[in-house]
Structures are given as structure tokens and as C-alpha cells.
Design a protein that fits this description.
This protein is mainly alpha-helical. It has five helices and two strands. Strand 1 and strand 2 form a beta hairpin. Helix 2 runs antiparallel to helix 4.
């Protein structure tokens, strides 16, 4: 388990609600967040500083919303679907199902899948020399492009000055 799963969303994508996040990125973030919160709760109980876990949860509230919105984008849903947790009983179940659903493998309205920046387009080979066209058995070589000579600048008559 790498701590980068937690640090990247917190440090580099703190309030980035655009783009997509994979299932693994989201659930690793949640797991590390849970472990840190439990650890801070234990430390807070032992040292009589119960507020440590609360301060931590407030500090990562925005990154938690941001990665959840990006996770919902990965399945083609708006980030506002996290509000479904406000529906009693069934809302949280639907929300967890959304977060556990496999993401779209193709491009959706929220961008390319994570790790894929663009769909590669094959480039046709470029001819190395001038193409020769054969018409009725006779090769026709294209005429070379005309060269343009620069036109001289106009001169003003110097008489009368």
C-alpha cells in the first residue's frame, strides 16, 4: 500500500472536481483516510486531545468530495450525485454502488479514461519523393513549383522636392 494514493489527491488535486478517478484510486484514498483517522482517534484518546481526528477530517473534506466527484465522473455521472446520500436509507446504498461500479472504458463527457490521454489516430505514410502518375501507359511528372521572385519596392519620384 503506497501513501501516494492519499497524498496525490490531497496535495496535487485538492479541489480538482474535473476529470476522472479509478475505483482503485478512490478506495485506496478512503482506506488510507480511515486508517489515519483511527490512528488519530487512538492518539487523541491517549493524550486527551480528542479533536485531532476531527481536525483531520475537516482538513480533507474538500479532497474527499473532489475525488468522489471524479469517481462519479468515471462512471458517467455528475459529481452532484453524491447528494443522493441525503435520501434516507436507500441513498447511501445507491451511492456506494455508484462508487463501486467499474468505470467507463471509453471516452465520456468528463474526459478520457485515467491513463489514456487521447485515442491514437494512424498517420498515413508521407511520400518521400514526387509521385509519378501514369496515364495511358505514359508517366506524367508534375511540374516543379514556380519560384517567386520578390517584387521591388516602389520608388517615389524625387522631382519637385
Amino acid at each position: 500500500m503506497s501513501f501516494d494514493w492519499f497524498l496525490n489527491p490531497v496535495m496535487n488535486q485538492y479541489a480538482d472536481f474535473s476529470g476522472r478517478a479509478t475505483r482503485q484510486a478512490y478506495w485506496m484514498f478512503v482506506l488510507i483516510q480511515f486508517i489515519i483517522s483511527i490512528g488519530l482517534s487512538i492518539i487523541g484518546a491517549v493524550t486527551d486531545m480528542e479533536y485531532l481526528s476531527t481536525v483531520f477530517m475537516l482538513a480533507i473534506f474538500v479532497p474527499s468530495l473532489a475525488i468522489a466527484a471524479r469517481r462519479l465522473h468515471d462512471i458517467g455521472k455528475s459529481g452532484w450525485w453524491w447528494l443522493i446520500i441525503l435520501v434516507p436509507f436507500i441513498g447511501i446504498i445507491i451511492y456506494i454502488v455508484f462508487l463501486a461500479t467499474k468505470g467507463d472504458a471509453n471516452v465520456n463527457v468528463y474526459g478520457y479514461p485515467v491513463g489514456q490521454s487521447a485515442i491514437p489516430v494512424p498517420v498515413p505514410p508521407q511520400p518521400t519523393e514526387a509521385a509519378t502518375v501514369v496515364v495511358l501507359g505514359q508517366p506524367i511528372v508534375p511540374a516543379p513549383a514556380p519560384t517567386q521572385t520578390p517584387t521591388p519596392a516602389p520608388t517615389w519620384p524625387s522631382e519637385g522636392l
